Amino acid sequence: MDEGNVNEERFRCQMKYAVFAYVIVSIIWIILTDLYVEKLPIPPHIAPYVQTLKGSLFVILSAVFMYIALRKHRQLKQMAESEQELLTLIHAMPDFVSFKDGQGRWLRVNEFGLKLYGLEHVDYKGKTDAELAEYTPHFREALLYCIDSDEEAWQAKTVTRAEESFAMPNGEMKTFDVIKVPLFYENGKRKGLVVIGRDITQQKIAEQLLLKKEKLSVIGELAAGIAHEIRNPLTSIKGFLQMMKETKEVDERFVQIMLDEIERVNQIVTQLLVLAKPQMKAYKPLALHDVLEYVLGLFTYEAILQNVQMKYEPRTSAMIYGDKNELIQVFVNIVKNALEAMPKGGKLTISTKDEDDCVYVVIEDTGKGIEQERLKHIGEPFYTLKEKGMGLGLTTSMKIVHEHKGTMQIESEVGKGTRVRMMLPLYKNDPS
After folding, report:
1. Is the entire prediction scored with pTM above 0.85?
2. What CATH number labels 282-431?
3. I need a surface site. Which of 231, 291, 308, 319 has the fewest CB within 10 A?
4. Which residues, 6+ apart, have CB-to-CB distance to 263 below 8 Å?
């Protein structure tokens, strides 16, 4: 029996009880009022008026009763129609929709939900997920998992959202975006739970395909960059070897150039390995001040030759957790880039600041700056602004900072200089 027929039958039962009650009350009214009026010392000429008044009251009370009954009937019918419209809408939805009471018993579920769990021919009303799991063994684990996720929604006391996946009988994996809305009485007691699950299987498949496509695209770009960077030195080596073969002479200058080009290829491969392959890390507590002092010492002489003023302020006492050699590599790359941006002199400032659980290092130069369009590509493999650069220095540096659970931001303005802002977490007793 569908919901509309159930409501109609309910209306009929209510009307039967109402008519029966009306008949009983009317008989009692007539008998009692007749007995009461006969006992009253009423003059004969007034008795008819009393009977008329009694009849009028009966008619008025009957009219009030009928009005209330009809009004109630109309309200119930409107509620039934609204409920039927809502159920029709819910059943037409391509999403899983169910209503549970405060004890987790199923009160209502749409046709999609019944088909999803294979419960089309099961009287589910009043049954919990554990009880329904006995009717559909394939979905037993999924239904039992719902008990735990429902409890999480009750405990959260607010709308929760999560992705749930399970296998269908045909082996297909289904993924649903599930929203659970817990309802409570005013006293805080559990009232009900609304569960809505949207099938996002195709969306997840599309996301995975897109991610795979992006990875293949990145691999293609990286391969093209590697080929370009390695082809140049190989071309030079090949040319010099052909020249020596034709002239049958070995020129020391050409040999040195070939050795330099081979070393360049080796550097490219080494930095690529740093990017692509996890390396053994020597992580331990270390003073950031020691790292910065060491790096500044490396470039003191070069800065003097280029007429660059280097300033380090304030000197930090921060302790961080990481690999000292890798962090030195990061700051060497940044300082070297800053000096190369000021061939005619300038100012290089390194400042540090401890804040909350982090230490911030800011390296600023007064060099020529970087155009905004080019700044967007800084850090991409093989993207460089230098004639002889490989475009892997900043890429490697950013990877190292990320592995140290830090961040790096680069800001620049043409004609004014570049600002590199780095954040690293402070060392704690428990580095994890």
Report:
1. no
2. 3.30.565.10
3. 231
4. none
